[in-house]
Design goal:
Number of strands of chain B: 0
Radius of gyration of chain B: 28 Å
Number of helices of chain A: 8
Structural class of chain B: mainly alpha
Number of strands of chain A: 0
Mean pLDDT of chain B: 87
Helix content of chain A: 55-70%
Structural class of chain A: mainly alpha
Low-confidence stretches of chain A: 1-39, 159-167, 249-277
Shape of chain A: elongated
Oligomer: heterodimer
Largest sheet of chain B: none
Distance between the termini of chain B: 104 Å
Distance between the termini of chain A: 33 Å
Number of helices of chain B: 7
Low-confidence stretches of chain B: none
Chain lengths: 277, 185
């Protein structure tokens, strides 16, 4: 059941706000260490104070959404469960079923309201992250390096499953993963982290526009639809859209890189050729 | 009498020089078989390739020899195969089949972690990003070679490292080129 999945995903996420603060602190130290280990060429501090501040802002915004939405989604799920076990799906016009339908519709609208209230903060922080990192990445890797240099820059990076730009992780989980990678010390590569953050923020900004449209559409459908409670395809599509932005989709691999276990702290994994059919 | 003996001498000398000239201006060419035999025995295959490279007419077959030896060695993986290929490349350089640089590129593309196909032009925004698709294709091709190289020596650590680098380089390149494009627009 998709609504159950939303609730389960909520419960899985660690305290994002704490992670964002930890990330900010560690990134400050890691950025200094990373700058010290670079070659003689002048380097840009990728995770400077302004970038760390925007990352903190993103973590706070994502946490607020998760906290704000969790209880509504939980209620939505419980009501739907009751709706089904009471056989209300089969068009039962019992007073109890009518009440449940109304509750479902109200919960759904409440979820949309909360999303509309919280998403602008995410949009703003994503835009800031994107803008700040773009300048740094362009100056460092676009204008001051060759492609050959890029391989030198990423050599220390641990393997990340679905490390390509097409991968979409849950927003809070990605911040958590980045914090974990940085905290584990020298295994993480700051250029790779910066690249991931930059591409993710661009992808999320694009998704947000889609979500806003879905919110408007979902609200209209729910208000027009007098038969509250049936999770219509339109409502489900909005819930799926929310899941997309908050919880991400399954990461897609490059199709060529050797698949390995994610965040393998010792870097080891069973080998399987990517060319095996 | 004296006059006729002089003529005979001149005629004899002319005839002999003609014959001698003919003998030196048209060398007889012998047919050379430059193909390697299809042996599965690695040592024999490399010895044969070395022998062929000693023949001037066969030097330009080096690429075909290399490919065939890779196939042969894949059938008999061993760390020692690295040494065989190293020696082969050294011999090929000595015989003028390839240059030192070409030998380094060839060896590293199969047995090294570094991607030799990555361009070395300065400033990715104006160089690598313009040909990003071609760069990606080149990297994929080279990664396939490194996998074969791993099979040849019977260990995949270098290939695994190169795989990680491939993913991360492509990620960083994607971010860099996107950032470059944002600046341009």
């Amino acid at each position: 059941m998709k609504l159950q999945q939303i609730v389960v995903e909520h419960r899985k996420h660690a305290t994002l706000h704490a992670c964002a603060l930890a990330l900010a602190g560690v990134l400050g130290m890691a950025a200094t260490a990373d700058a010290a280990s670079m070659s003689d060429r002048p380097t840009v501090n990728l995770f400077s104070r302004d970038v760390i501040d925007t990352i903190k802002q993103t973590g706070t915004a994502a946490k607020a959404i998760e906290d704000g939405i969790a209880s509504v989604v939980h209620r939505l799920e419980q009501t739907e469960q009751l709706y089904k076990t009471s056989d209300c799906e089969k068009g039962n016009t019992d007073v109890g079923c009518e009440k449940l339908r109304q509750q479902l519709g109200e919960s759904y609208l409440e979820m949309l309201d909360k999303l509309e209230a919280y998403l602008p903060a995410i949009a703003e922080s994503m835009k800031n992250t994107q803008k700040t990192l773009a300048v740094k990445i362009r100056d460092q890797y676009g204008k001051n390096m060759t492609a050959h240099d890029l391989q030198e820059a990423v050599k220390t990076a641990r393997t990340e499953q679905g490390a390509t730009s097409s991968a979409r992780f849950p927003l809070s989980q990605r911040v958590e993963r980045i914090a974990k990678l940085v905290q584990h010390g020298s295994g993480g590569s700051l250029p790779v982290l910066a690249a991931q953050m930059y591409l993710d923020s661009a992808a999320v900004s694009g998704l947000l526009n889609v979500i806003y449209e879905e919110i408007n559409r979902g609200r209209l459908m729910a208000e027009l639809n007098q038969a509250w409670g049936m999770v219509t395809p339109e409502m489900q599509s909005t819930v799926d859209g929310v899941k997309g932005i908050l919880f991400g989709e399954a990461p897609t691999s490059s199709g060529l890189a050797a698949p390995v276990d994610p965040i393998a702290t010792d870097g080891s994994a069973a080998f399987r050729s990517r060319f095996e059919m | 009498m004296k006059f006729s003996s002089n003529i005979i001498t001149v005629l004899a000398l002319s005839a002999s020089s003609l014959l001698f000239g003919c003998a030196t201006t048209t060398p007889i060419q012998t047919a050379v078989n430059c193909e390697l035999s299809r042996t599965s025995h690695v040592e024999s295959a490399f010895s044969e390739a070395d022998a062929k490279l000693n023949v001037a007419q066969c030097v330009n077959q080096f690429d075909a020899y290399f490919e065939q030896l890779i196939k042969t060695a894949e059938g008999d993986p061993s760390p020692a195969n690295k040494q065989h290929f190293d020696s082969l490349l050294a011999h090929a350089v000595e015989k003028g089949a390839i240059s030192v640089t070409q030998a380094k590129v060839r060896y590293t593309s199969y047995f090294g972690r570094v991607f030799v196909s990555l361009p070395d032009q300065y400033a990715n925004c104006s160089s690598t990003c313009v040909i990003k698709s071609a760069v990606e294709r080149g990297l994929k091709d080279e990664l396939r070679k490194k996998e074969r190289g791993g099979r040849v020596i019977g260990e995949m650590e270098i290939f695994q490292g190169a795989s990680r680098d491939y993913d991360n380089v492509m990620l960083l390149l994607e971010a860099t080129c996107t950032a470059c494009k944002a600046d341009a627009s």
